[in-house]
Amino acid sequence: MTEQDLQGFNTLGLPARARALYVEGEADARILSTLADAGHEVFVLGGGSNVVMCERPRHLVARVGLRGIGLRREDREAWVIEAAAGEPWHDFVAYCLSQGWPGLENLALIPGTVGAAPVQNIGAYGLELDQRLEGVVAWDIQAARRVELAPEGCGFAYRDSLFKRAGAGRWLILAVRFRLPKVWHPVLDYPDLRTHPALAGGEATPGAVFDAVCDIRRRKLPDPALLGNAGSFFKNPVVPAVRAEALRERFPGLPAYGQPDGRVKLAAGWLIEQAGWKGRRLGPVGMHERQALVLVNHGGAAAADVLRLARAVCEDVRARFGVELEREPVLLD
Question: How does pLDDT run along the chain (333 residues), one tens digit per residue?
């Protein structure tokens, strides 16, 4: 366990140094449990794409390096694919397609790792991760044991899960299993996807959906390698239907999407843009000029700069719409 420079391990590019342990197997996971039992606060770090790092975190950072992808089993209806937690998420999606295992293409180009995906219950363009999940293999850091969880045991909700609610020091995900249907149907619920030139007027294929999603994301979202960011910085707020109806009466252009539980999901990016923050900077950070939902580091920013901008955006959205925004990335402090 040594102190490491973590600036290159968070996509916002924030300066940070912390004690870190590289986890490549269950033997390392046992060491992590021993350190946690001795009083070290643990933070499990995946690809660093969903985290705001303070300069000197008090936590012991567990960097996940587990790798490997394979077909675990198949039946008449689906393939069950297992991927180790340290695999880059987008590369895993592309690999599945190359092997003839479609079903994850709507989630292409999301940054981060396979192990981080269920923590956040990632989703995009009409598909949520839990819709394709077979199970999660995890290490219970507190109990020092390996656990296998079925989807119903993961406590999934919108951008939320058991792993996230338990806090950063409880669970280390080792591998994730996906059930990918052999009878494939495209998920084209979002207008941007449905009307994309690669899909409009023709029969959709998994590869065409993958290419369209990648094209849309590249046009809308900045590359973290070129401009530091953590992707969507705020969750889309979910409000009661009566509240959504009242807001749409006042703001007819407000995008709103009904949810299975009767509530309505609002577009956080639209709210932020209407509050005047699209392309606006506050010191070295700002909201992106093409996508108001994305907070970017223009260079030289620290965690305090990011949090100050986030508070300012939340206050303005609250004042204008009476809606509370919630930060999506977790804070490593």
Answer: 679 999 999 999 999 999 999 999 999 999 999 999 999 999 999 889 889 999 999 999 999 999 999 999 999 999 999 999 999 999 999 999 999 999 999 999 998 999 999 999 999 999 999 999 999 999 999 999 999 999 999 999 888 899 999 887 899 999 999 999 999 999 998 888 988 988 877 789 999 999 999 999 998 889 998 999 998 999 999 999 999 999 999 999 999 999 989 999 999 999 999 999 999 999 999 999 999 999 999 999 999 999 999 999 999 999 999 999 999 999 999
- pTM confidence score: 0.86
**Which is catalytic among the residues 33, 49, 161, 232?**
232
> Which domains are present in the chain?
2-64 (3.30.43.10), 69-218 (3.30.465.10), 223-332 (3.90.78.10)
- What does the alpha-carbon distance between residue 206 and residue 138 come to, in Å, rounded to a whole number? 30
Given the residues 63, 132, 159, 327, the one annotated as active site = 159
Active site (annotated) includes residue 232: yes
Would residue 328 show up in a list of annotated catalytic residues for this protein?
Answer: yes
In angstroms, the Cα distances linking 249 to 245, 253, 254, 261 are: 6, 9, 9, 22
8 A C-beta contact, residue 62 and residue 113: no
β-pairing verdict for 17-23 and 60-64 = parallel
Active site residue 67: no
Cβ–Cβ < 8 Å for 323, 239: yes
Residue given tokens 């809308």 in the structure block: 220
Decide: 278 and 210 in contact? Cβ < 8 Å. no
